[in-house]
Please model this.
Amino acid sequence: QVQLVESGGGLVQAGGSLRLSCAASGSIFRINFMGWYRQAPGKQRELVAFASSGGSTNYADSVKGRFTISRDNNKNTVYLQMNSLKPEDTAVYYCYAFQATMHWGQGTQVTVSS
Model:
C-alpha cells in the first residue's frame, strides 16, 4: 500500500503563488506516475498535471504556462508550483500515485481570492 501526504495549500490572492508537496511512503516500488487532480465545489475532479518516473510531464490546458510539476524520485515526492493563480484555481487538490492502481492523498485546500 502507498501512503501519500500532501502539504502546501492555503489562501492566496489572485496573481500569487503556492507550492504543493506530496510525499509517498509505504510500498513505493515502481510508482509510474505521480500527479495532481483538483475538485472545485459542484464540479467533477479534473486532472491538473502528472509526471512519469522517466521525467515526462503533462498539464491541463487551463494551467499550462502557470503551473510546474516536478518529481524527486529519491525522496518519492512530487511538487506542484502554482504561479499566477486565478480565482478559478480554487479547489481541493489531490495528489495521486499510480502503481498498478490509483492511490490518493487526503487533499489540500487551495483558495484564491480575487
Remarks:
- The CA atoms of residues 10 and 110 lie 5 Å apart.
- The first strand starts at residue 2 and ends at 7.
- The mean pLDDT is 94.
